[in-house]
Structures are given as C-alpha cells and as structure tokens.
C-alpha cells in the first residue's frame, strides 16, 4: 500500500473480510500510512500470528517496528496517538468529554450492538431471523440517537470527518448489507433511521473506506458458506 512510512516498519496481520481488520485498514488509510498486509488463514494460523498474539491468537495484529499491538480498538487508538500530529483526521476528538463519549459509543458497538446483531448473523431459519431482527432494532435505535448526539449536525459521528465510532460501526456495514439480503430485512431502514442510513452512504464513500472494504458479492458467497456449514452442523446434532 502506498503512503508515508510512519517512522518504523508497519505490518498488519489480518483476514480480508473481518470487520475488525477492516477497522484497522481504514484507520491506516485515513492516516496515509504505508504497511505490509499479510492475509492469515485462521484455520491454520501462522507461527507469526501465534507469536504476535499468544493470548487470543486472532487478528488483527499491527506490528510496528517489530512490536505487536493487538485488539482492534486498542490498535485504532495506538494509530491515532502514534500518528496524531500529522494533519490527517483524528479518530478521537480533542475535548475530554467528547473523547469519553466517543469511547462510550465505540464500546457500545462492540459490547452491545454487535452481540445482538451476531444472533441475526448466525440465524439459519426464518423464525430465528425474525426474532433476532426484532431484538437488534432497539440497539440501532440507540445508535440513531447517538449519531445525533455525537455528530452535532455534521456528516459523521466524529463531526466533519470519520472518527472512532464511525470506523468501529462502519466496518460492519458490508456484513450488515449481506445479512439483510439473506434475511430479507433492512436494518438501517431510511424511514426508521434516517440519520444512520445517510451516514452509512457517506462512510462507504470515504476514500480510505472504499479502498479496503470487501466486495459485497464476495462477502455474500462467504456468508452462504457459513450458513450451509451451520445448517449442516445443526442437522447432525
């Protein structure tokens, strides 16, 4: 990837469709940083990955000057702090209260929205999907309110530019679209969630996002493979 070197060799261990990895790639792109990307096979993890993240043994792992940084949100803040004075968009705002608010909603994405949506993602039957969809809608309602609070009438949760909450939630957008297609749903319905629906379009149009967001058709193919495996596993139990 072209860009600035960033004061030390950068390498990212990841998998192409992972929202957690997409987060990091978007942040690196926003900062204009160059890095070497290594695609990991999580069914046969490399020794490099196991050495770099021996606790969780998962991606993403950002290796900066030979030192690994693990867990996507930790990596995002590391990138923002390490390359903070660059004239590029900052993931976290300068104001302490706004920073705390951004961290709160980023954790909400990880700890509340995603686990609820994951039930929909893992559902294999129409009845399951309908119930899971109903249960995740209140989480989206909260995010719609959060967008109004954080954006203060501007384009992104982060204001004029995408910030930490944008990157954390936006990394899931292609997967949300694909699951909607399979489930016959529309989670970010413009009529119900006009703020989030418009935000999603703007986020996907950001250059750093477009450059790394996987193709929806490829993700759909992978997801259908997951569903077939889960359905087969349920049938054999």
From TrEMBL:
Entry's transmembrane regions: none
Annotated Gene Ontology cellular component terms: cytoplasm; cytosol
GO biological process: glutathione metabolic process
Domain GST C-terminal: 95-227
UniProt GO molecular function: glutathione transferase activity
Alphabetized Pfam families for the sequence: GST_C_2, GST_N
Catalytic activity reported: RX + glutathione = an S-substituted glutathione + a halide anion + H(+)
Superkingdom, natural source: Eukaryota
Residue ranges of domain GST N-terminal in the record: 8-87
Cell location: Cytoplasm, Cytosol
InterPro entries for this protein: Glutathione-S-Trfase_C-like, Glutathione-S-Trfase_C_sf, Glutathione_S-Trfase, Glutathione_S-Trfase_N, GST_C_Tau, Omega/Tau-like, Thioredoxin-like_sf
Alphabetic keyword roster: Cytoplasm, Transferase
Coarse class of the protein's main subcellular location: cytoplasm
Keyword DNA-binding: no
Function: Is involved in the conjugation of reduced glutathione to a wide number of exogenous and endogenous hydrophobic electrophiles.
Family, as annotated: Belongs to the GST superfamily. Tau family.
Protein name: Glutathione S-transferase
Organism for this UniProt entry: Oryza sativa subsp. japonica
